[in-house]
Amino acid sequence: MIIVVKNSCEQSQFDNLVEWVKDLGLDVHVSRGENSTVLGLVGDTSRVDIDLISSLDMVDKVQRVQEPYKNANRKFHPEDSVIDVGGHKIGGLNFQVIAGPCSVESEAQIIEVANAVKASGATMLRGGAFKPRTSPYAFQGLKGTGIELLLKAKAETGLPVVTELLSVTDLDLFKDVDVIQIGARNMQNFELLKEVGKTGKPVLLKRGLANTLQELLMSAEYIMSEGDSEVILCERGIRTFETMTRNTLDLSAVPALKDKTHLPIVIDPSHSTGIAKYVEPMSLAAVGAGADGLIIEVHNDPKRALCDGAQSLNPEQFDALMGKIRKIIPIVGKKYDGRD
Ligand code: PEP
Ligand code: MN
Questions:
Q1: Which of 137, 209, 261, 306 has the fewest Cβ atoms within 10 Å of its own Cβ atom?
Q2: Taking the model in full, what pTM does it have?
Q3: Is residue 183 part of a domain?
Q4: How far is the CA of 103 from the centre of ligand 2 (A)?
Q5: pLDDT in tens, 287-320
């Protein structure tokens, strides 16, 4: 971090600033110019409050040279992180497909979809038991029963399960869940992030509707700073002025995040487009862009789905998509461990 100090300031103010920075455990390199003096801060500046320093009258400007996230930063961990979810590796050269309904609706529904997506080559099962809905009158999920049904589907198919946690008060119900999903609306629920970080379980962290990639990485940092290194990032579309799709899929998030972090990145073409027939092209584009996986909504009867039916593929559409995905994965140099 660099602090540019105006030479018009009092020497005592200058000394106080230098002392304060040193008290934070940082080294300070001073270089005096004609009109200003530059302080180069050396050490871990992630705890320095940049806004506080900028607000001082004596300070002309402050610039970060290093990103404020450490655990998620590729600079400190150059190799791609590979996360093992029930024997399925994601990250590095390993590609995975997570599929299933938006929400768990009944035992028959989740078992049928789980068997179908497995037969088509999905390697993990998704399904919401706790649903964050815009309307309080919309289906809110089967909650604890939904988790039990997901675990039944896991026992039947062997597929690890991914499901969303909305509140810390439900965390006990998630002990047999393989991946805890933190949804877009909770990306900056920092208390929730800290609690999931304490579980040490793999976490699928979705990008918020209006959050920058740096904010996504800071949220990953919250989880990782509690000792959980197994964070999978998910781009699920952001809100823009465009209305023809539910959200705008920011596919450039894949190379941009890959530059900055070693964490695996998954694309959600379902929530980003909101339209079933756009799921295939965006899935193929995501594989081409270098994503480490996909999370796709599949329903046995999309027209009757209690949530997100318009963006859900039926099992036949998913099977056709998987056939294409399997062809592209080796072209981008990745391995896929679903059905051959
Ligand atoms: C979901 O995965 O069903 C979901 C609610 O996703 P998001 O948080 O991305 O809207
Ligand atoms: Mn959904």
A1: 137
A2: 0.92
A3: yes
A4: 7
A5: 999 999 999 999 999 999 999 999 999 999 999 9
